[in-house]
Amino acid sequence: MNHLKPLATLLATIPLLACANTDGKLEPYPSAQADQVRQVIQLEPRDGEERYKVELIIGKELEVDCNQHWFGGQLQEKTVSGWGYNYYQLDKLTGPMSTLMGCPGQAKRKALVTLGGEPTLLRYNSKLPIVVYTPRDVEVSYRIWSADQETRKAEPR
Length: 157
Hints:
The protein is mainly beta.
């Protein structure tokens, strides 16, 4: 029976280590309100992080037709008081809205309907989490954009 004790100790420690790795970095950030969820993106360290951007993709998976669909809403950038860390808050999505083309004979399909407007591109920074507060039924995903190291000169005319 004593040979199981080290294994039991290790298994009991693993959840604590997981909490220490994520929750410690989230300590300065406020807890989510009752009707919201805090969604966190922790980026991997990369060489040349200044050449990367993170695009936030916020929305819901819905059944859609052939039209373009989107949600309205305002993603607000806020700052953790006393820390200077940014986080993002979306209080609600409105819609969905869509174009009004006819779709005769076309079956509906499931698709991610996202927040309309300009893409939200953030600085790539693996040292701090990207924290987004959204309503519970909204998902947050992201895409990494990268810039080529080669630059080109404009042509004077």
